[in-house]
């Protein structure tokens, strides 16, 4: 691996370099299809809810010991092939000095939305962000995970910008998409700022011990392909630039991203996550047939009868064989009402398929 990773990093000292997740991310099929779940840390787990009593979401993310414990809980319970560090998309905004809070039942809310060039210019210097609490949590988690890799993650610049402009959750991101066209100078300044924060946040997690990174573009599905290519993708590439020298696998995932999968790969990702809308074999065709994919169980089926879910999981595995390699995941996050036993059963089912995953059905 690159010399910029510390000698004690799990990829440098051999703990995770040959793990099923990392080798699959790098395009090599192994004896099992690795499995992890987006939003596996928290929400659906009773031990998570018990631990979180009396602690606000962002405070939990910034408590190294609590964030570490929450990250480890699903690894212990489900036997997944990776942990993903417990955090929130708006954490780097908070650490950069933006006044943002998570309102229960609503989501991230900003005290002052960013809607003009003056607002953009008034944003705090992203270089002043202090990620020490995140790095402490990552280091503590990695020490406990042993040979199981940890994935670091961050929101892509467009998703961060959408929250900043809207001031909170939005179904259509009209204000953000309007700003993109109405004031290109403000838009480019905002996306540059978000890319700098994201890149620094990812780099901090990786240097602290994460073995892979996922760039998560929650709201990319609201964009036309032309807008994505011209006004968003260059900034996602900028967000990944600060970690390229670390030589770690990068996953890029977006919700509703079927029309821009190839463009999302082109920003500098090794692996493309696919949501539940597009079958993996079709996604592989759109990606040119040479890209490792991640996904794409429909989260809605987690509450279906087991025989229905089992057939769906096996179909996802079958379709995933059209790609060079495949990491099984959901097509989005774990719904909070999910029975944790169902997730454990999926992991057992996928691992039980064994070496047959590399062959045609």
Distance between the termini: 35 Å
Tally of discrete structural domains = 1
CATH top level class name = Alpha Beta
How much is the average pLDDT?
95
Query: What is the H/E order?
Result: HHHHEHEEHHEHHHEHEHEHEHEH
What oligomeric state is this?
Answer: single chain
The shape, in one word, is globular
% residues in beta strands: 5-15%
Low-confidence parts: 356-361
Spatial strand arrangement across the major sheet: 1-4-5-6-7-8-9
How many extended strands? Answer: 9
> What's the helical proportion of residues?
40-55%
Largest sheet: 7 strands, parallel
Rg is 19 Å
CATH architecture: Alpha-Beta Barrel
Q: What class, by secondary structure content? A: alpha/beta
CATH topology assignment: TIM Barrel
> What count of helical segments does DSSP give?
15
Give keywords.
single chain; disordered C terminus; seven-stranded parallel beta sheet; TIM Barrel; alpha/beta; two-stranded antiparallel sheet; 11% strand; 361 residues
Question: Describe it for me?
Answer:
The protein is an alpha/beta fold and 361 residues long. It has a single domain (20-358), classed as Alpha-Beta Barrel (TIM Barrel), CATH 3.20.20. Helix content is 44%, strand content 11%. It has 15 helices and nine strands. It has helices spanning 20-25, 46-52, 57-61, 64-78, 91-96, 117-121, 132-145, 157-166, 174-182, 184-207, 225-240, 261-266, 280-286, 306-320, 340-353; strands spanning 83-84, 100-103, 107-110, 150-155, 212-217, 250-254, 271-273, 292-297, 326-330. Strands 1-4-5-6-7-8-9 form a seven-stranded parallel beta sheet. Helix 14 (306-320) packs across helix 15 (340-353).
